[in-house]
Amino acid sequence: MSEKSNKPRKTHYHSTVSRRDFMKALGVGVASVGAVSFARPFIDLEDMASHPKAESVQPFWVREVDEPTIEIDWDRIERFDTRNNAFASAKRHLGEERYGQVFAEGARYEKEGAINNIPGRTTRDQALGAAAQWGWHNLDVPWLGSPTTETPEERGIPKWEGSPEEAAKTIRVAARYFGATDVGFVPLTERNKKLIYANHRFEDVEEPYESEEQNVIPTSRDLWAIVYTIPQSLIMTQRGEYGGYGDSVGYAYARRGFTAQRMHTFLHGLGYWHIGGSGTGVGPTPAWGNLAGLGEMGRTNRLVSPKYGNLLRTTAVMLTDMPLAESKPIDAGIWEFCKTCKKCAEQCPSGAISMADEPSREVTGPWNNPGLVGFYDNAIKCWEQLMTTGCTTCHAVCPYNKMDEATIHELVKISIAKAPALNGTIRMMDDTFGYGLVENPEDFWEMDPDDYPLFGLDPSRS
Amino acid sequence: MEWFFWMLFGIVIGVAATFLVQELNKRGIRFVWYEWIPALLSVVFLIGAVQNFTGSLAEGRVQAAWLMLVSLLVPTAVFAALTARLVRARLQ
User: Fold this and answer.
1) Which backbone phi and psi does A445 adopt, to 5 degrees?
2) B10:A28 CB<8 A
């Protein structure tokens, strides 16, 4: 009998109110009185971990549920072989000739942009992108990291210990300090072991290890997945199709390496295992993000977060033997909204995103992992577009991706969560109000310097 | 400086409301409870209009800013007019 899950059940609501939310809710000068009480400086990591924000990072209108909002047929899920992902398998699926053509078209597209000074593709734009993506590949860390500290055992001091709740708070605070926006925790079970990549092997060994052939996960201890998200800049993504202006995509991947290495070192220094979290990964990241309650699956077949929309460039998964308090999947109405909206699919230049009215069990090719009743994307079409024009259209146009300066966006998200009957109207209003790709990406150079994304992160959304 | 803008805005709203209530008191006009409702809704929509206009400009969304301003000033005016009409009707 298959374990299916499509009926989320309310457990409880989050109640976190940030300083920014608080100021906005009042919207008048008297808010400064209350803000003083929130503005107390932190003293140390223990103090930071005791802050309510360390317990939950989702807005108050997001419900925790027992199972993800998307229907999952666990019996049909197979451990995914990363050699089938679009990047690794494009040549196999397209054939040598077409594969070569794609790169030639990409080079021509770039050259044409530079010679004709096309906004978003000028020599300056391309140089900005090339510089921003530095670190994407060359700073990625090994599967077991390369910690820059010794373990407590090696130092002759006790390992850090705390309750699962204290440990979860500690990891959440540290991960955010290292560059992760949201963090969730999932105990590894027989069921969700299907979401560990097929090219990793479980073995009854004392320690995890990696070799040229295989990465090995020990079965000798209980394991937990630390799942955290790395967003990309909305300001930059909405400014162009060339890899997101200033290659906001590559920049976010580069920040993943910075964060992963610090997470490896932190767990090492506390005295616990640290496996994955980097480009090599542990398993399909949208799936783990969904289980950890960092978002819901969307029409793009990727994770959509209540706070960051589908601008989560990547979700990192790191396994550890540190016992952690489990976080639950969430229901923010996103999955239902995606069924109605279709804006990403309508504007996808390659037609890679499903336009179906209802989710389906049918995969589009071996690059998809079966088992979801979802909107499967044609990842090879997407790859071709990426390699020629560096597209980020689905991220730029998603109505869920908004800055947080205007309070209307929060009200819209509350409506999506509580009044799905208005979803069609919300989509229509998004078009009417002119959201989506901006007309002239080069106005980036004329922006107020305070509004530039600092280290690739939007000033008002981090 | 965002907080400074909102502090000034709060002061302006507070001073204007105090002045209005004092002027009405001088003329012997007092709101009854059901007249406060559209009056307060009018203020809420006014604050919403200003916040979303300035917020959308800060987001670099000029078209959204102006549409937001217009679409929220309309209910502001409607509720203000309704308040005045209710008061006038009661006094007559």
Assistant:
1) -70, -15
2) yes
Contacts of A30 in chain B (CB under 8 A): 10
Per-residue pLDDT band at A129 (split at 50, 70, 90): very high
Q: Cα separations (Å) of B54 from A29, A49, B76?
A: 16, 34, 17
Contact A29 B47 (CB under 8 A): no
A225: helix, coil or strand?
strand
Nearest to B6 among A29, A433, A447 (CB): A29
Strand partners, A331: A63
- Tell me, what's the pLDDT at A17? 45
Nearest CA in chain A to B5: A29
Do the bridges between strand A312-320 and strand A224-231 make them parallel or antiparallel, or are there none, so unpaired? antiparallel
pLDDT exceeds cutoff 70 at A323: yes
Query: A271 falls in which pLDDT band (50, 70, 90)?
Result: very high
Residue A397 and residue A406 in contact, taking contact as beta carbons nearer than 8 Å:
no
The span from the CA of B38 to the CA of B36, in Å, is 6
Instruction: Please give the structure tokens belonging to residue A168.
Output: 């979860």
The pLDDT, as a whole number, for residue A190 is 96
pTM score, two decimals? Answer: 0.88
Structure token digits, residue A5: 């899950």
The beta-carbon neighbor of A406 closest among B7, B10, B56 is: B56
How many C-beta atoms lie closer than 10 Å to residue A1's C-beta? 4
- Tell me the two tokens of residue A454: 């600092």
**Position A439, amino acid:** E
ipTM: 0.90
Residue % of chain A over a pLDDT of 90: 74
Pairwise pLDDT comparison (A231 vs A450), residue with the higher score: A231
